[in-house]
Amino acid sequence: MRQTIALVIGSLLLTALAACNTVQGVGRDIESVGRAGKDAMH
Fold it and tell me: Whole-structure pTM over 0.90, yes or no?
């Protein structure tokens, strides 16, 4: 029983870490698009 709970908690933690990494990547992409648009206007 404890192994199952530990496995579930570990899986949730890994999923959360992967999701945070993805969100940061999307934020960087949006930021770079904004910079490119700003540079194109000048």
Answer: no
3-class state of residue 20 by DSSP: helix
Measured CA angle at 19 (ends 26, 3), to 5 deg: 170
Residue 41 in tokens: 């206007």
Taking residue 29's Cβ as centre, other Cβ atoms within 10 Å add up to: 10
* Whole-angstrom distance, CA of residue 41 vs CA of residue 37: 6
Reading the chain (42 residues) residue by residue, the pLDDT tens digits are 889 999 999 888 888 777 777 777 778 888 888 888 777 777
Between the two ends of the chain, the Cα-to-Cα distance in Å is 62
